[in-house]
# Entry
Amino acid sequence: MIHRTLKERYHKSVNSLAVRLVFGKTVSRNQTYKFFVYDLEHYLPKSISGNNRDRAFHYVSGQVSFPPTTLLRLALRRLSSEVAGRFRRTDKIVRAPGWTLLNVLSWVYSKKTMNGVFRPAIVDMQHEHVAALADGKRGLARWVQLRGYCSVGAAALGQLPVSLIKLAVKLWKAAS
Amino acid sequence: MNELPRLSSFERLILELLSEHTELYGLEMIKASGGKLKRGTIYVTLNRMDEKGFVTSREVEAEGRGPARRSYRLTGHGSRVLASWQMAGAALAQGGLR
# Structure
């Protein structure tokens, strides 16, 4: 239920200070945000529980103002998580794999191809990846990620001739 | 007279799977096919079938978790094409037995 609320609220405060403090970066796309919330659900340290967890969600939405002490605590939490990330990897907030690849592919392929071919493939990989992580199977998660990249690469190669032909036809029609 | 639309073996398999199940995700089709469909090719095939009008798709919100997934279902045209191919296959098999 809280996910949906945050999705609706997100549009109002995309690059809020809260989001930047928690995730260490600005967020500019709706799709990215949806997964950020998903990430938060899975990667928010387990020590933040109960009411504090809900408050953290609200905090990310940027709609609720918190006392400076809470703000500072969460910022420090993130900093310590970054510093100790190598030793306590379970506390690290990470993005689901594939978004960068999706952005790169969107430079080459049309929106229709992206929505019909690459986005579903990457979303499937993300679901499998996070499910493996939720089960504590890090090795499987890595394997899913590797296999996902390979399959998206294969799909990109398979789709390339079709896209090139379509582009050539489009250019030819425009020229004639 | 209209010709029977061309159908690759993967396309036919996907049509058969979708006729057995009302609606499927790509990943579910891969699992249901028993390894015949591959992750690298299924969405290219599904996209092509969508363009041909054999299947239709929609985005389904993942119940409060994760990004929306694309779900596929058979269209009326796809259903008729599958039936035609199955009839043609059956007729060919009967002819071969004579």
